[in-house]
Amino acid sequence: MLLCLITLLIYAVGTIWPMLIPLWLISEGILMALSSISILMTLAIIPFALRFFKFKTIEHSLYRHPAQALLRWGLLRLLMLGTLLLFNLLLYFLLGHEPTFGWLAVIIILVLPFVVPTKDRCLSETTPEKVDNHPESADNHSES
Question: How far apart are the first and last CA of the chain?
């Protein structure tokens, strides 16, 4: 809910912003630096957030204290992506609808369904995978 309110606030400010400050006051160097930082942050945080629960310490925490760890780490993962989304949306609106930031926001929105904490996903992430130590090979059951 808070994320939606912040997004609406950014949209409202973004529509008024170009009338308040002329875009020519922002130099090309600043725009290029912001664009580079945003792209690098997006390319680094998205894979990190998708693989976040596979890190050993977090995975063990999820198995030992499932409810507390899922709340803590799941919220952190959503906050990473949500903050990055808000950062890109803010830059998109404040810099006069610069398409780079808009497309980065779209990419993050497309990633969000893969980390939404559904009931099945929560159960699968807090249950250890069972490893079969004695796989049956085809050699044991071949006919002679």
Answer: 67
Tokens 């942050």, residue located:
41
Report the C-alpha gap between 19 and 41 in whole angstroms: 29
Distance between CA 18 and CA 13 in Å, rounded? 9
The pTM for the full model equals 0.69
Within 8 A by CB and 6+ apart from 45, the residues are 80, 81, 84
Segment among 11-15, 75-79, 86-90, 134-138 with least mean pLDDT: 134-138
Q: Residues near 11 by Cβ (< 8 Å), separated by ≥ 6?
A: 89, 93
CA 41 to chain centre: 11
Range list of H helices, the chain: 2-20, 28-50, 56-64, 66-94, 99-111, 119-126
| 42: amino acid identity, one letter | T
- Of the CA atoms within 13 Å of residue 122, those in its CB half-sphere come to 15
